[in-house]
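Two proteins were folded this term; both appear here.
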Amino acid sequence: MSKILAVDDSKSMRQMVSMSLKSAGHDVTEAEDGVMALDLAKQNQFDLIVTDINMPNMNGIELITALRALPNYKFTPILCLTTESSGDMKTKGKEAGATGWIVKPFSPEKLLSVIGRVL
């Protein structure tokens, strides 16, 4: 069982991600934006982070950059789960340190498959 942080400003999306991951036996913590996620990440060690890109207060790219600056998150897998599908945005994510990119809408099977590959 892995400790996973799910970050999305949409409550329904967080719940969908959380249910998918919990059904596979993962321990999931939810955050509604990058600021909250960064605070949680500083207080806990997560095995994986799944984040949206477009969020208020601190977006996903800013969150990834901030996480990668923390010694204990240098090598933690970070997946972007977002509606953003442009090559430019994917490049920004990769440059910030994203491990992978999943475009919404997603299937729980695809999410679990990608997570299985990066953990």
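Next, the second protein.
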Amino acid sequence: MKSMKTMIFIFSSVLLLVTGNLFSQSLTLRVEGFEKVGGKLYVAIFNSEESFRKKPCAAFAVDVKDKTVIVPCKGLPIGTYAISMYQDENNNGKLDTAAFGIPTEKYGFSNDAKGVMGPPSYEKCSFSFSKDMTLTIHLN
């Protein structure tokens, strides 16, 4: 009976350790290219091609207080992700655009991906996240 309890304890400990490691990675976003300090940076994180630019698995906004913004993202499980973001300089809650939908505010994507006649694809933006990493994104 004692050995069974010991085995259960060891199994539970190992399971907790392995599970904890799956969620302990830290993704840090380093966002560069702000021309103006102010407003908010809206960040959306996607975990599939089907949800890309439609339904993020995580989304948040941070104040733009400097020409480079560091954003810690904790709690993301190991996986493949794509990120899109934009600076809402005038705090109206949306990405402002000019004729033909061309953005007038700064925006960016993971891998510094660029699209042709529109936003880039999930494939161009996607990256594998399995350990602590810093991802630098330059705004356009």
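The CA atoms of residues 5 and 11 lie 10 Å apart. Confidence is low (pLDDT under 50) at residues 2-22. These notes refer to the second protein only.
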